[in-house]
Amino acid sequence: MRFSCEKKTLVHSTTIVQKAVSSKTTLPILKGIYIEVLENYLKLVATDLEIGIEHTVEVNTYQEGAVVVDARLFSEIIRKLPDAKVEITLKENNQLSIKCENSEFNIVCYDPQDFPELPSIEEEYSYEITQDLFKNMIRQTVFAASQDETRPVLTGALMEIEEDTLNMVALDGYRLALRKGKIQASIDNKVILPAKTLNEINRILTDEEETIHITLTENHALFIIGTTKLISRLLEGEFISYKQIIPKEYKSKVKVKTKSLLDSIERASLLAREGKNNLVKFVIDDDKMTISSNSELGKVQEEIFIELEGDSIEIAFNSKYFIDALKIIEDEEVYLEFTTSLSPGILKPVTNDYYIYLILPVRLSTN
């Protein structure tokens, strides 16, 4: 095996696949990147047996072949090389020669035949969605997925395709994030993807309007982004019936500027963090919303102007959950909808209905 290409090409390619390299494994081969040279292109593959990433790029091929290299060592070497052409050659003694200007490394490799093949997925039918939209959908939902491994289904996000709409939903038992987007589809489907998978896809995606192709099978999902393929196992189990959780009515509806609300809650949370549950209290009445927090270190009170439709209300929330949602909403104004002080609150943008964030309140002590 022998090929050459620019250093920046190798850096970009290894950065993409390295996201799937296993960090916790007893199998040394899974800590490696599979490198194969075919005709005029280079194929790089990495997998932790849950996620697999394959990336191809054009190179100058002198001799075809394959090898597996330690991912961490290889990527660090490539990054430290001069910004020039790199020539890589596999020698007979299973050593990989990496040459760039006046630098030369020789590193020990693994047998490529020991590297696990990625699952084979028939790409007969795929859904299509623009990269910028899918990236936004991930950003606005996946943060609400659970970290609790005892409830595996909730550590992922539901991808539900209904006609030409994709619903992406994540929840952890305290909050729920729902983002809707348009997708090219003729077959309805729903799967649960690990949050880790979506986070890795998010890092590969660009803000371009180019299309991402998605193929779903019974056990796997395949994402094709340009010359990169990502294959992920799906989470097994039944996702919570989220539509039944979202309130259809409200008794109090608040219209407020997003940044004013975020800034006020962040200031109030400076003291809330010293308490046990990050609690901030909202007192909503007429055209004013008072946000307060108490702890052993003191108390804070913020007032912001609002537009109120319906009843006055007092309600408390975990400040972190509110801040997480407000940070990813792009609208200048948001609606807050409440029913009672013990019922879930709803947060959504004023200008559209494609995003809904539900958050459970914290019970206020009566003393």
Average pLDDT score: 93
CATH fold description of the largest domain: DNA Polymerase III, Chain A, domain 2
Total strand segments: 26
Low-confidence stretches: none
Strand order of the largest sheet: 14-11-12-13-26-25-24-18-22
SSE class: alpha+beta
Bin the strand percentage.
Answer: 35-45%
| CATH class placement of the largest domain | Alpha Beta
What is the CATH-assigned architecture of the largest domain? Roll
Largest sheet: 9 strands, antiparallel
Termini separation (Å)?
Answer: 76 Å
How much is the radius of gyration in Å? 25 Å
CATH superfamily of the largest domain: DNA Polymerase III, subunit A, domain 2
Number of structural domains: 3
Query: So how many helices?
Result: 7
Q: What is the overall silhouette?
A: elongated
How helical, in percent, are the residues? 10-25%
Subcellular location: Cytoplasm
Pfam family, one: DNA_pol3_beta
Keywords: Cytoplasm, DNA replication, DNA-binding, DNA-directed DNA polymerase, Nucleotidyltransferase, Transferase
Organism: Clostridium aceticum
